[in-house]
Amino acid sequence: MTPDVVVDIGNTRMKWGRCADGCVADVVRLPLDDAAVWEAELAQFPAPRTGARRWAVASVNPPALHRFVAWARDHGETAVFEDYTALPIRVSVDEPARVGLDRLFGAVAARALVPAGAPAVTVDVGTAVTVNLIDAAGSFQGGAIFPGPRLMARALNEFTAKLPLSEPRNNYADFRAPAKNTADAIRTGILAALSGGVVQLLGALADQCSVPLWVFVTGGGAHLLDGLDLSRVADLVMVPSLTLEGIRIAAEALP
Q1: pLDDT, tens digit, for every residue of 203-214?
Q2: Active site amino acids
Q3: CATH top-level class for 5-82?
Q4: What is the reported pTM?
């Protein structure tokens, strides 16, 4: 299947990627529950060159997935990924069926972006932060998960009596400590936790690989890592559409 549109449905929003010339050409972010907005956005897309529009859809949010697929099936042909076995990648972990498909689609895309025999790591900064290893043979080897910046900020606000809701505004290039007020102290702490977690994990993964890692960063909070120096481990490559590219590649591998 060659998709016209790939869709990644998350916990707080969805992303559509229009496919052209063998890649994801344009990306838009849309609400999870507003069919009127979906209709308006679809009206801006060019008509498919031949036949019905082809959608490839994946999600970590089953209720939102089912709602969207019911709508999408009225607007073309739809391929839905709900199981890791449909993806063109080996999953070498204890419980493959419990791995979030977003992690696996990122791995599929990363594997396609590196030379044969090169290991890769994906760093997805979203509601949660995931750091995942794809080994030199192209197999998904698992990784780590920790709270994302917004989740950290909400936890501090909701589970304490006086701390305000304060999310990072700037990226690591503007990191300064100590902070001089409570709101900035929270932002500084979250940025330190994010960058420190990524550095620690990449160092541990690099120690297991005999050749340098390729590291691909994606997700709504990926910009927060701008300016983070990891030259001793690897260079970071920002790929905003990494998950969508993985969905496109997986769809094209379907029989």
Answers
A1: 999 998 888 899
A2: 102
A3: alpha beta
A4: 0.92
